[in-house]
């Protein structure tokens, strides 16, 4: 599952970059009002790729629990994918900005997310600035207000919902609630690590 969600993420990124570049070209050489579409495309790209990331987290949580369950029943650690991803890509069950861990868990994966986010923010800003003349050229005041209000409302809603779901930890908490005790040991050892009589450790 994680492979497919990664593929979908980069498919959406490539599509968004292509659309934004096309709108810049159209805006500069054909029709300046095309710039006004760029902030909406950039916002769509941010929401869509965050959606892809939310499904990536879903897949990783399920895979990690399944690996722990299989390792436990095998009596040895034979599956390490979840542990490696947690250390190399981004950690689960920690407050993040989508897949960006701003602390010790920050990684190249997190930087790629930062990079595409900054590209999107730049496109959003440039599209609005370059299209501002077109906004002012609207013959009716209501059209200007409608454009700005819709863009503002969608932007705020996306930011607030993203903060609630990702940084607030609601999404991952729901996954843990749904998975319950699957793949987790029944009790905690004296050293603080989750373990049972067979020495099963929750980290693997």
How many beta-strand runs? 0
Largest sheet: none
Uncertain stretches: 187-204
Strand content: under 5%
Shape: elongated
Distance between the termini: 19 Å
Please state the CA-atom Rg, rounded to the nearest Å: 22 Å
Element-level helix/strand string:
HHHHHHH
Fraction of residues in H or I helices: 55-70%
Q: Helix segment count?
A: 7
Mean pLDDT: 86
The count of domains is 1
> Structural class, judged by helices and strands?
mainly alpha
Give a structural overview.
- The chain has 204 residues and is mainly α.
- It has one domain.
- The chain has helices at 2-29, 38-74, 81-88, 108-130, 132-136, 141-167, 170-179.
- It starts with a helix and ends in a 25-residue tail after the last helix.
- The model is unreliable at 187-204 (pLDDT under 50).
List its salient traits.
mainly alpha, 7 helices, elongated, disordered C terminus, 204 residues
Q: What is the fold's blueprint, element by element?
A:
Blueprint: H1 2-29, H2 38-74, H3 81-88, H4 108-130, H5 132-136, H6 141-167, H7 170-179
Helix pairs in contact: 1-2, 2-4, 2-6, 2-7
Question: What is this entry, summarized?
Answer:
The protein is mainly alpha-helical and 204 residues long.
């Amino acid at each position: 599952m994680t492979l497919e969600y990664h593929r979908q993420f980069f498919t959406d990124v490539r599509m968004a970059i292509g659309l934004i570049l096309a709108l810049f070209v159209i805006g500069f050489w054909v029709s300046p009002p095309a710039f006004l579409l760029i902030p909406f495309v950039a916002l769509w790209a941010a929401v869509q790729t965050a959606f892809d990331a939310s499904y990536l987290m879903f897949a990783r949580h399920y895979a990690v629990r399944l690996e722990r369950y299989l390792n436990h029943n095998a009596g040895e650690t034979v599956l390490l994918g979840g542990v490696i991803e947690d250390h190399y890509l981004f950690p689960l069950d920690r407050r993040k900005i989508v897949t960006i861990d701003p602390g010790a868990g920050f990684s190249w994966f997190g930087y790629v997310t930062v990079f595409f986010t900054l590209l999107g923010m730049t496109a959003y800003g440039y599209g609005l600035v370059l299209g501002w003349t077109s906004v002012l050229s609207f013959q009716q005041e209501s059209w200007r207000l409608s454009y700005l209000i819709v863009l503002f409302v969608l932007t705020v809603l996306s930011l607030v919902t993203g903060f609630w779901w990702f940084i607030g930890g609601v999404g991952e908490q729901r996954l843990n609630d749904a998975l319950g005790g699957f793949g987790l040991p029944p009790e905690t050892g004296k050293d603080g690590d989750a373990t049972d009589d067979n020495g099963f450790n929750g980290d693997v």
